[in-house]
Amino acid sequence: MTFDQLIANGLSVSVDQAVTSQVNSGNFQVALEVVYANQAEKIFAFEKLAPIVLRTEMPLDGQVTVQPTAVVWKLPFDLTNKESFRQVPMLNAINSLLLAGSSYSAFARVRVRLLGSTIFGQSGNSSIFLDGECFGSAGTRADGVTPRVDFNFPSGSLQRASDFQSWFYLAPMPQLVSLTVSPASITFSLSATTPTPVGTVTLNYAAIADTVVSLSVTPPPNAPAAVTVPASVTVPKGKILAQFNIQASNTDNATAQSYQIVATLPSTIGMPTTQIATLSITGDVVIQ
Q1: Inside any domain, residue 65
Q2: Parts of the chain with a pLDDT under 50
Q3: What is the pTM of this model?
Q4: Based on the domain organization, do 71 and 129 belong to the same domain?
Q5: C-alpha radius of gyration, the chain, whole number
Q6: pLDDT tens-digit profile of 92-140?
Q7: What's the domain range around 225?
Q8: Which of 170, 185, 205 finishes a domain?
Q9: Quick one: 136 and 182 in the same domain?
């Protein structure tokens, strides 16, 4: 998943009986295994060599909520709280750590561990401890191709208590890093063919899923609506950029006018990224 999805949704572990014990970051443990950045590995990956990945483990505290049928872990970031913007620098700092290695698909790994001997519910006067051990089986990722280890649920190994352990990979928040238009200026003329401008949006790393970028145009004041773009463009899974055609028409104005092309990538936590590029159009005055 991406970091903004983790912030928005957290982690939820379903249980078959109500938990009555205290659960916090001490016994619901979440740890990041972030990649130590090495610029040389980008070159090795380009040459189809497997990267040598060094990771640093960083335990990550969260707010744990015990519900009737689940235990939920979330980062303490609440968009409904107007003061939450003060926490954004810390989120950006974590996101920067996640970016290391993403250029060659060495994403951060997240280890999740629930300590079975400290998580329990009540049955009369007795405590029932978490028997969380799961056994693996062959599975595939969401792409239907890449192999992974699936868990067989419900958990349990007929022990009085056992830990639940799992892991997944965490990608940085997808962000727009550039929007370019080529050519950046066009001139209409009856004696020459006008080229069709092409816009290019670029992400901060190759998309882990098809990623939709919204597009719009802001014309200069009192100028005609001479530029149109698609409502959106999709960066395909596994790609870092996508292109789209820009339709331009004669402004009937011999003075160059600048139209702003705006690309916006939404965010599940209300932190979209926007890039702006300019297309300059010089019209050809048509005498009727």
Answers
A1: yes
A2: none
A3: 0.83
A4: yes
A5: 26
A6: 999 999 998 888 888 999 999 999 999 999 988 899 999 999 999 999 9
A7: 176-282
A8: 170
A9: no
pLDDT at 17 (0 to 100): 92
Q: Find the angle CA(35)-CA(111)-CA(96) to the nearest 5 degrees.
A: 35
C-alpha–C-alpha distance, residues 69 and 35, integer Å: 35
**CATH number of the domain where residue 197 is located:** 2.60.40.10
Q: Is residue 287 part of a domain?
A: no
Domain boundary among 115, 141, 170: 170
The CA angle 158-164-169, to the nearest 5 degrees, is 145
187 with 166, same domain? no
Report the Cα–Cα distance between both ends of the chain, in Å, rounded: 59
Instruction: Kindly state whether residue 16 falls inside one of the protein's structural domains.
Output: yes
The structural domain count of the chain equals: 2
> Could you give the C-alpha distances from 58 to 71, 98, 185, in angstroms and in order?
22, 12, 49
Same domain, 63 and 107: yes
Residue 288 domain flag? no
SS (HEC) of the chain: CEHHHHHHHCEEEECCCCCCCCCCCCCEEEEEEEECCCHHHHHHHHCCCCCCCCEEEEECCCEEEEECCEEEEECCCCCCCHHHHHHHHHHHHHHHHHHCCHHHCCCEEEEEEECHHHCEEEECCEEEECECCCEEEEEECCCCCCEEEEEECCCCCCCCCECEEEEEEEECCCCEEEEEEECCEEECECCECCCCCEEEEEECCCCCCCEEEEEEEECCCCCCCCEECCCEEEECCCCCEEEEECEECCCCCCCCEEEEEEEEECCCCCCCEEEEEEEEEECCCCCC
